[in-house]
Amino acid sequence: MSKRLEGKSMIVTGGASGIGLATVERCLKEGANLVISDLASSDGAAKAQALNGQGGRCIFIPCDVSSTEQVDHLIAETVRQFGKVDAVFNNAGIGGITPAVDYADADYLRIIDINLNGVFRVARAALRQMYMQGSGSIINCASILGTLGQTGTAAYSAAKGGVVNLTRTLALEAAPKGVRVNSIGPGYIDTPLLKDLPPEMRQGLVNLHPIGRLGRDEEVANAVLFMASDEASFVTGAHLLVDGGYAAGKS
Ligand code: NAI
To answer: In terms of CATH, what superfamily is 9-190+219-242?
Structure first.
């Protein structure tokens, strides 16, 4: 069987850790050339070096998604090195738990700027390139908190809800140009983002998922792989929950 991303070039923002890194590993095995993009302070360069050649090529391009300049450079540098951009997983994100009334402007805006505006910046730059190519697939990482609210997550859930609806509008604009845009909504996934949770809080999160456990990063990677591949050629503007049944309701 041929590899599912053979010859494709793909960028994963926030690719040095967690869901992003798992997606890089999965998509490399399917024959894609991968850009791990992450903060310059991350260990993305070492991760890329370790993975290079395990399937396609893997390189690191530093980029803070809160900087338009760095985002535009990310796309230009990918084109310089790989010739094109077939898929982008817009995954970089940060967490934050604060009651709404206690939020300082700067903390609230920082979460919105990385989790929502960052997705827009990367999508805008990628779409400009993909329109020239006449093809491409963008996958935006939202969250179960793009569909449901949760106390303490005013900034995060506002950003993720924004990602879900931004995706729909981008999909409408991009469809006539041969480009697909979709979002995914992971439930709670066992990644470094959750590493500092006390055990009782962690169990509380497990209980939210009818499947009875937290998700694994490779389970999200599989959904991204599908969206990036030509198997999803008639899928655009969709929001795919990967949430162990969380949003289905209470049992
Ligand atoms: P993680 O903390 O393991 O990885 C996030 C990566 O994003 C890190 O490598 C970090 O350096 C990078 N990053 C942070 N700020 C950045 C910026 N300004 N520019 C570029 N890169 C930046 O987290 P995880 O869990 O893998 O999360 C990935 C995505 O999945 C995020 O968008 C998160 O909101 C989303 N998500 C995670 C869930 C979870 O339970 N872990 C659940 C639902 C969604």
So the answer is: NAD(P)-binding Rossmann-like Domain (3.40.50.720)
